[in-house]
Specification:
Rossmann fold; six-stranded parallel beta sheet; 21 helices; 37% helix; globular
Amino acid sequence: MSSIHGGHRVARALATGGITRIFTLPGASAQAVYDGCLEAKIEVIDLRHARSATHAADAHARVTGATGVVVVGGGSAVLDVAAALATAQQAGVPLLCLSGGPPATLRGRGAAQEVDAATVLGPVTKATLVARDPTRLELDVAHALAVARAGPAGPVFLDLPLDLLLSESDPRPVSAPAADFRPAPEARALDEVVARLGRAERPLLLAGSELRFAADPSVVRRFADQTGLPVLLNGLARGALPRAHPCLVVRARPRALAESDLVLVAGTPLDFRVDYGDAPTWSERGALIQVSADPAPRARGRAEDLRIHADPGAFLELLRGRMDRRSPGAWGEALRAEETAPAPPRAGHAELGRAVAAAIRGRLRSGDIVVGDGGSFVGTVARELALEWPELWIDAGPLGTPGIGPAFALAAALARPGARVFLVTGDGALGMHLGEWEAQLRHGARIVTVVGTDATRAQLARAGASAFGPERAVATRLTRVPHDRVAEAMGLRGHRVDDVADLDAALDAALESPGGACVDVSLPVAP
């Protein structure tokens, strides 16, 4: 090969960075990258929408722990990815978005599909970069991948002008040295935390998403086993402890936060939510210690008393080696009693959500994945479904972006070919990207979609009715769509559940479907 074009350089850098699969909404200006992926043996998965493709790259990262990569064209595709990049940013997911933009020589002169990506995407990415030299494309891609993974992880946008992608140059590779951006814990910070934990009577560990991408995510369980501290899991850290673990706090979460005299917050922002729409009720007298790879982490919920800039996984590993196991004491025993108490009866969506959670739980195997996409019905399933890594629950995260489900499920199924993948969603969220069922089928992603159908934007309906009266809850009603029949029309299997007693049989039949299936669960209409 006497020369190679820029698309080969981009793909070669991706392969060197460990990327084996990319997601895309095909764009003419990005075709050189696809050609390079053929040469580099990188799988290209195309979806029906740029936002969905970006969500799929996000989910790929959450499942594999690697960096997700999405490739789009220019123009409207750059605008379409903004919500998905913001979703990854707030969830702390390493993601690289490559865009084949208009030629550099035509920029500022009315070039077709020209978008000021830095202005549009700057607020929702860690960095917006522009390639300027075809011979340095490998260095640009390597740098973008490194920034995406640098703690805390997040999305990076790299603009690849078309003339650079098509430019021919010497085929010899240009390599970049591997970089590790994980800040190391300082001994004096460890000593200070050990001392404060030793004085605390009601200490907690709150572990968050940064730990999902730690060098060894199992550090959370080792820390709990060693220290005996009550542990709250947030974001992508859910599943780090099994539901039966004596240190795990789920139902008693509000009480634990309200009564604790010291919360060690590792790898999650302080403005997280206890539950959908609820702010955490921090103890007024309790101290907060935040450990994050972010040198300036968010602290809008409550200012911390001590901020430590360190990789939270490495910090917990060193901290546990300096601590003796604590007795749970009366407070720890009270938290555990609340955890194990029978759940109070619920009605409507909540009761059906519990039934769906129990039915799915009974069919999960190690390594299976559940994707959540929607409001109240899905929220109940999330609370009631007990998972343990390598089982995963993944949802939009702090931004609460609706419509992520089909793309998340597709990427999850491809990332773990032997896993059972369930998508639990509402009819409002599913309707946003229902066309991705075609992409699921085309790429061989076997998924069981469980959709709660009530023809209502239920959370909005309840909020509107509460605030203004039932007759003024506008823009909250939908048409009742027979999703089982839509699935059949698109090549999947469809099952309708009007009685919860039929749920188990429908799920069993769906799991036997060779190309995936939809189980449409009829929900009562929200008031």
